[in-house]
Amino acid sequence: MRISAKADYAVRASVELAAATDSSPVSAEALASAQDVPHRFLEAILRDLRREGIVASRRGAGGGYVLARAADAVTVADVVRAVDGPLVYVRDQRPSDLDYSGSAASLLHVWVALRANVRAVLEQVTLADLAGGSVPDEVRALVSDDEAWENP
């Protein structure tokens, strides 16, 4: 699985909104600056997030963006799906839509298992977790293994 720059920036901007100490809107410029994200690219990402109900925008002098839902009700998976679509896909298809035959037939099980594991992590981590500087214990356990940090 590859996390796109778009998904990375979307999660970072969303966490920045979740970490805002008051409920006043945050401008796209402030979000871009806080996370060192290209402003124009972030504007397009924020439109996607707004369309999917992750953020809401407010116009005017004090305008900007706020989370449309409580930070503990928005998962990393929600944000990634909002900007990139399905979490795991093979050749632009969902694993469950694929059909393999012959000696490669069991490969389908690998792709579906991959999707299940990606979901298991991204659907349990909320913006509130990240804004609070933590992740659920199950995720923390996965990264406590030194080998998790190495690229073989």
UniProtKB/TrEMBL annotation:
Keyword field contains DNA-binding: yes
PROSITE patterns assigned: HTH_RRF2_1, HTH_RRF2_2
Keyword DNA-binding: yes
InterPro entries: TR_Rrf2-type_CS, Tscrpt_reg_Rrf2, WH-like_DNA-bd_sf, WH_DNA-bd_sf
Segments passing through the bilayer: none
Domain of life: Bacteria
Keywords recorded for this protein, A-Z: DNA-binding
Pfam families: Rrf2
Protein name (Swiss-Prot/TrEMBL): Rrf2 family protein
Higher taxonomy: Bacteria, Bacillati, Actinomycetota, Actinomycetes, Micrococcales
